[in-house]
Amino acid sequence: VNHLLGIKYLNKKDIALIFETADHFKEVINRSIKKVPTLRDTTIANIFFENSTRTRLSFELAEKRLSADVVNFSAGQSSVKKGETLIDTVNNILSMKVDLVVMRHPNPGAGIFLSKHVKAAIVNAGDGAHEHPTQALLDSYSIREKLGDVGGKNVVIVGDILHSRVALSNIFALKLQGANVKVCGPKTLMPKYIESLGVTVETNLKKALEWCDVANMLRVQHERMDISYFPSIREYTQQFGVNRQLLDSLDKQIVIMHPGPINRGVEITSDVADSDQSIILHQVENGVAIRMAVLYLLASKIQ
Ligand code: CP
């Protein structure tokens, strides 16, 4: 069975194929054809052990636009609360003849673990601070849409790198496509191994922004944070928050991204998030086409 567990397991050709397939689905959506019969005989379970707005709705919309049958599971309203294990939960769902599982889980490696213990294709919709592969795919796809080929572009990922699955998946995806990648953030929120991934570290945000074509502003992940790691919010915003004044002080117009949800006024001010320089809502829009592509390509392997 084939899975999408992380960008780490993909190659450059896989990404190109996903983008070509997403181009096709985006064209279909833009022609106001809301539904295609492609996955009419496929049943998909979206199982979320952690909160989500974008990823969950985007997967569900992608599945429905491909005519799949869809069931949704939130751990908070389930028998997980009575002590049922992850494997038991998923095997019970699979015994209702589910073909593919989309899972978000707070534990890094949860998708990999599941793929070894259950007979279904698994799509990782974010596993703790490990990977968020469809986010990285939609991020690169959005850069490609805005600036052309991702190869050779300078991309800086700013903020809480340590706790960010978006950062890790983006680094893998961008490097595979030949982008130059910097990370910028407080030393306390920078993993020790980060340079071994082929990225450079810049602690001065203005220098990083002067260098880049694209700045991907990460959310400060309060829920994964040990308070001792962190400068105060005020200090963080002063040193690593992007605002209009800072952008206007650069001698070029860079593209601003954010995976959402935004802490407005912390990592990004509203006048930047809602400006023409921001492609934040394009990222969300592209998420549906990217997820349609991923599901279509995986389902074609399991049928
Ligand atoms: N970007 C992202 O994963 O958002 P959600 O947590 O709302 O799904």
UniProtKB/TrEMBL annotation:
Residues 152-298 form the Aspartate/ornithine carbamoyltransferase Asp/Orn-binding domain. Keywords: Pyrimidine biosynthesis, Transferase. Carbamoyl phosphate binds at residues 54-55, 104, 132, 135, 260-261. The keyword Transferase applies. Catalyzes the condensation of carbamoyl phosphate and aspartate to form carbamoyl aspartate and inorganic phosphate, the committed step in the de novo pyrimidine nucleotide biosynthesis pathway. Belongs to the aspartate/ornithine carbamoyltransferase superfamily. ATCase family. This is Aspartate carbamoyltransferase. The gene is pyrB.
